Amino acid sequence: GLGCCVLVLLLLLGGSGSPGTTPPPRGPWPQEPGAEPEGAPWGRGRYEAVKKHLGAVGALSKQYWRYLACRVWQEGCEEEEKQQEGREASPIPSWSFPLVGQDYLEILSAWYCSFGKCCETGDCRIINNITGLEADLSGQLHGQHLAKAVVVRAVRGFLQSPRPQKALVLSFHGWSGTGKNFVARMVASHLYRDGLKSDCVRVFVSLLHFPHHNYVDSYKAQLHRQISETLQRCRQALLIFDEAEKLHSSLLDAIRPFMAQQDSEDQQRSIFLFLSNLGGNTINEVALDFWRAGWAREEISLELLEQRLRRELQEAAENSYAHSHLLRENLIDFVVPFLPLEYHHVKLCARDAFLARGIPYTEATLDEVAQMMVFVPKEEKLFSAQGCKSVPQRINYFLP
Fold first, then answer.
1. Whether the predicted pLDDT of 23 surpasses 50
2. How confident is the model over 270-307, as pLDDT tens digits?
């Protein structure tokens, strides 16, 4: 198997040996000062010299393995780069990274890629782990029963469709801190092994990437080129637009052709996620009405909220996103509402933040974090005004 080939290769390249009663073969073992003459019984000095260079051989073999793992599986590349820098700064005496060894590894990685999942574009890093996405949304996304159900159902159905007629377009709406960015990152990490760093994922933040309206024409050409390149490079692409309500209408026009109906013979798949604070007040009003009526928030249906949201978006004044082709031409497949978070949801976010950093906590500690947040409306103090957005920073108060 591959493991055996790697072991043989490392032994051939790195060499091995162990001290015994017979002298070691002639090779790269330099004579230490005061060492015994050739053929004499081994003494302490000679043993230490051999031990030192066997350590160098072991280190070299580890270097080869790190290089192979980086080349073939894309794992440990950052560590390999650091090790390479270290070798350049302080090389191991009498040993180097032979070019012939690197050539052998190139051959081995090419051989592995002939039947494994390797490619130049990153396309082979697509994993589409919908089961993991569903499990992580259930365990880590709090208070969003609608978003969990819609995202999993929409993504799974789209990826299982043999010939999708158009791109999948989801529009996330809700207050800041309710989980829109969190879900977008989770989708990326479960569809691609490299998550947001994948060559097949592009993230655009309106105020960061398109800050000046005077340069809209330049932005439009740039955006069109970047999306085209991503779609050409990857048979499945994910494009995320944060702060979508701030996108200029010309930019939305540039995006539109990539979402519209496509050739049935085209195997290209693309998913567009738009993240927006638009409609947050409408969502909150519905959630508050349910609470006042004594109904559980889990009884809020997608049909009710989606109708209210679409109506508000269509009536929104002076907003290019709300009045764009996306809504008028029904290019958005699902308008996904993110509900406001309550006190116990904030506590769950705090618990996750403590666990992520390996910091011990108690129920009293979680209560302290939640009580630091601002809750609205003024009378009921039911919903966190910032959702869970600042919770990770709040736990810094509890560091030793």
1. no
2. 999 999 999 999 999 999 999 999 999 999 999 999 88
Task: Quickly count: other Cβ atoms within 10 Å of residue 317's Cβ.
Answer: 6
What is residue 356's DSSP assignment? H
Tokens of 145: 């029963």
Distance CA 360, CA 80 (A): 33
pLDDT tens, 104-141?
444 444 444 444 445 555 567 899 999 999 999 999 99
The model's pTM:
0.71
Contact between residue 290 and residue 191 where contact means Cβ atoms under 8 Å apart = no
Would you give the DSSP letter of residue 25? Answer: P
Can you list the positions of beta strands (E) in the chain? 168-173, 201-205, 236-242, 269-276, 334-337, 375-376, 383-384
Under a CB-based contact definition with an 8 Å cutoff, are residues 6 and 68 in contact? yes
What are the two backbone dihedrals, phi and then psi, of residue 384, each rounded to the nearest 5 degrees?
-70, 125
Spans of all domains in the chain? 130-339, 343-398
3-state helix, strand, coil in the chain (%, to 5): 55, 10, 35
Report the distance separating Cα 4 and Cα 100, nearest Å.
20
Q: Tell me the two tokens of residue 346.
A: 């904030």
Task: Name the CATH superfamily housing domain 130-339.
Answer: P-loop containing nucleotide triphosphate hydrolases (3.40.50.300)
Pick from 155, 174, 142: which is nearest to 309 by CA?
Answer: 174
Report helix, strand or coil for 365.
Answer: helix
Signed CA dihedral, 351, 352, 353, 356: sign only: positive
In single-letter form, the type of residue at position 146 comes to L
Q: Categorise residue 15: left if φ over 0, alpha if ψ from -120 to 50, beta otherwise.
A: left
